[in-house]
Amino acid sequence: MDFGSGKTPAPFLRCVIMLHHLHPSFGRLPDRRDLTRSPQFDPAKGRFVNPVATDAMNLGRLPEVLGRQIKGGQERTPPSPWTFAEAQRERLAPTGVQVNWLGHASVLLHIEGHYYLTDPVLTERAAPFPWLGPARFFPSPIALDDMPPLQAILLSHDHYDHLDYETMLVLQGRTQDFVVPLGVDAHLRHWGVDPARIQVLDWGETATSGPLRITATPARHFSGRGMVRDQSLWASYVLDSGTHKVYFGGDSGIFPGYREIGTAHGPFDLCIMPIGAYDPAWHDIHLNPEEAVAAFQDLGGGTFLPIHWGTFNLALHSWHDPIDRLCEALAPEARLLPAPGTWVRPDDRPTGRWWTQA
Questions:
Q1: Torsion of CA 26, 27, 33, 36, to 10 degrees
Q2: Which secondary structure element, helix H or strand E, spans residue 166, and what is its range?
Q3: Does residue 239 sit in helix, strand or coil?
Q4: Is pTM, for the whole model, over 0.85?
Q5: End-to-end CA distance of the chain, in Å?
Q6: Using CB atoms within 10 A as the burial measure, which of 53, 80, 93, 107 is most buried?
Q7: How many CA atoms lie less than 13 Å away from 91 in the CB half-sphere?
Q8: What is the pLDDT of residues 207-255, one digit of tens each?
Q9: Which domains does the chain have, with CATH numbers?
């Protein structure tokens, strides 16, 4: 089906419109009048733009990508299913920072006695439908029904592997605040979240939730849950309790903004950095492991917690390539590699490579 001419076939367009109206997982586009206040929104293009020129998908490389997809050859899923369980929540200290990686970009943080959850996708698939799309390599170590009361959910952007409709339906009843970039609030309101509990941020703006000041900072990515892209913003976040600071990278390609964020907000106790789902065809929007380390160093260092790997098959590299390359690129004393479900502090250093034994 040829979309290169810019003309979408009428039957296909009608089908897409029908799906958008009938299935709530696609969410809702925001009112553009709410977006134009942002310097990141380009009125001439009618969409949000990145701080540097960005090619979200190099269409010239599409034949090569399809050829590699058909050829295969990479071990894109683990050889056997994994199972992990949450460990020792009852032993969490009432102060400081403790963190639990649940897979992909979903991280449960316990900061000064309050729980914060990033980009929750805790159901089986990162897709609009529960029967189609990339499936998790392992169930969430914390089931939805076992999630503790949350002070806030932080969303970096609206892609399906970072914002899941079914997860949000369950968690909205046990979450006090929702911190989101411009435009993402339209999805949440469409799904029944009380607008009074949603704090909507542009880059550089700050929300307060519990003991944290949460500042939205730039990222280099894109957005969209359907045929229309970039109608909502994407972001990273700085979480500041006054005594501890955490950086959550969300989803991004390499860009000079990391050094600027580090200068303005660092140093950090913990930098939560994406390392997977990279490819030369979409290099601008996803960090590879070596770029993630460079970004981490631009942020000012601290402890590096890798995310966005080992959970979904979203690229053409092997499932273990991101973590193998990270271990080559970053010294053990700077990295935190807990098994999913394990509570750790930024200064912990779990031993062993669990992904080779799970």
A1: -70
A2: helix 165-171
A3: strand
A4: yes
A5: 42
A6: 107
A7: 7
A8: 999 999 999 999 999 999 988 999 999 999 999 999 999 999 999 999 9
A9: 89-346 (3.60.15.10)
